[in-house]
Write a structure and sequence with these properties.
Immunoglobulin-like, about 450 residues, 4-stranded mixed β-sheet, mainly beta
């Protein structure tokens, strides 16, 4: 109240105290000037950085606030966290939240407060290295099936023992077994995520065993190869090939049938991994055929009705068997010897068999037929007359040549009895014998020479 010696004022201004002596009515007064100091301190906080995976602490900036001995600084937060520096204007925080700065002017007790929100961007990207796979002989390179967050702000980086290409893409190509790590980075907050995948390798080659060498012979003309020492089971495939032999059947089995000498190659494939192995076997052949050699045969002629064939230049010995056969001739004797006797023209086949190997070889010879009779033609003849007492016979229609001889017989051969045109002077039958001197074959023909010598009748009266 204003009638006491002490009052409380709330406004600045001049305040006067009047004191009155109630006994004598005397007064005295004195004035006092009350000033006012309500100047607020400055409290301000700059916009803070964002807490990220790369920047996990933030320094708040209250440097624009009042500072000095006359000021008290007080930082507070209900949902953040201070690491250090709360006694100054630049504290370090490591949690998102609202941070408050209270500045007190110690001289007048005035305060000012500022608040700032520290945001956080620590969202991790997605990273998936994909499914596990296996390198094989069929697939010596694989493309990993990675995935993750997409967009221009995301970066991919693979690490591992055998990256061929695409190491900064979701799907790199690799060629080695091992563990492959995918690192996905969000370039805006430097947050990363990782994922791993293990790549196995199956390059175990199958076993290919083409077996041991074998030998074809004249009795063993085909045989079965033995690939039973190779890997077996439903996951294996077999393929036999040859460039100089011949496969009859079973080229896709472990045991094919072949019928020719040569080199045979077996390729075994593991269908699970595509790996292959191959093996070769050499098949030989005992094809030492016996030698058959027959001399040229003499022909059957009119004077030679049996011929001895000559196979004596052929192989000989107790291990060899001879057999002569014919379809159109005739063997008199010796069909099991090198020199049989035959009595008919035709083709004769000599087969010689090696009794140890059962190998046989054959050769044939032709016995010609030279029993054809020579052509003979004694011709025709004119008659002998009183005016023509001799004439020439004409055998020119007969066979002619150096190997032919001629012989005329009859009652009146004057000359040329060994030619085709003899001269005769007597009527009668004349015979021409033609002989082929090469074959001894002969043929005859006759001609009758008539005579007309009837004298005319003469009667003189």
């Amino acid at each position: 109240p204003g009638n006491t010696n002490e009052i409380i004022v709330t406004d600045p201004g001049t305040y006067t105290l009047l004191v009155t002596n109630v006994n004598n009515g005397c007064t005295a007064e004195q004035s006092v000037e009350i000033s006012q100091d309500v100047t607020l301190p400055e409290a301000t906080i700059a916009n803070p950085e964002t807490i990220t995976c790369a920047n996990n602490t933030v320094t708040l900036d209250g440097s624009g606030s009042s500072f000095g001995a006359g000021y008290d600084i007080q930082w507070s937060s209900t949902n953040g966290n201070f690491v250090s520096g709360t006694g100054g204007l630049n504290p370090v925080v490591n949690e998102p939240g609202t941070y408050n700065l209270l500045i007190t002017n110690l001289a007048n007790g005035c305060t000012e407060e500022a608040s700032v929100v520290v945001d956080e961007n620590t969202e991790l990207p997605e990273a998936n290295a994909g499914i596990a796979m296996t390198l094989t002989c069929e697939f010596p390179e694989l493309t990993l099936q990675g995935s993750g967050s997409t967009g221009p702000e995301f970066e991919y980086q693979w690490s591992g023992p055998g990256i061929v290409s695409g190491g900064n893409t979701p799907t790199p190509v690799i060629d080695q077994p091992g563990t492959y790590d995918l690192l996905v980075t969000n370039l805006t907050n430097s947050c990363t995520a990782t994922s791993s995948v293990t790549i196995d390798q199956d390059i175990q080659a199958p076993v290919a065993d083409a077996g041991t060498t074998a030998e074809l012979s004249c009795t063993l003309t085909s045989l079965t190869l033995d690939g039973s020492g190779s890997s077996s089971g439903p996951q294996y495939a077999y393929l036999w090939t040859t460039v100089n032999g011949n496969i009859l059947s079973g080229e896709d089995t472990p045991a094919p049938t072949i019928n020719a000498p040569g080199t045979y190659t077996l390729v075994v494939t593991n269908l699970n991994n595509g790996c292959t192995s191959e093996s070769e076997v050499v098949i030989t052949e005992d094809d030492d055929l016996p030698e058959v050699n027959i001399a040229q045969a003499a022909p059957i002629t009119c004077v030679v009705d049996e011929v001895t064939l000559d196979g004596s230049a052929s192989v000989s010995g107790p291990n060899f068997q001879y057999l002569w056969t014919t379809n159109n001739g005739n063997i008199v004797s010796g069909a099991n010897t090198p020199n049989p006797v035959v009595n008919a023209p035709g083709t004769y086949l000599l087969t010689i068999t090696n009794l140890q190997t059962s190998c046989s070889n054959s050769e044939s010879v032709v016995v010609d037929d030279q029993t054809a009779l020579p052509a003979v033609e004694a011709g025709t003849s004119d008659a002998l007359t009183c005016a023509q007492t001799s004439l020439s016979l004409d055998g020119n229609g007969s066979a002619a040549g150096a190997n032919y001889t001629y012989q005329w017989t009859g009652p009146g051969i004057v000359s040329g009895e060994t030619s085709l045109t003899p001269v005769v002077n007597a009527p009668g039958t004349y015979q021409l014998l033609v002989t082929n001197t090469l074959t001894g074959c002969t043929n005859t023909d006759e001609v009758i020479v008539p005579e007309d010598v009837v004298l005319p009748s003469v009667n003189i009266a």
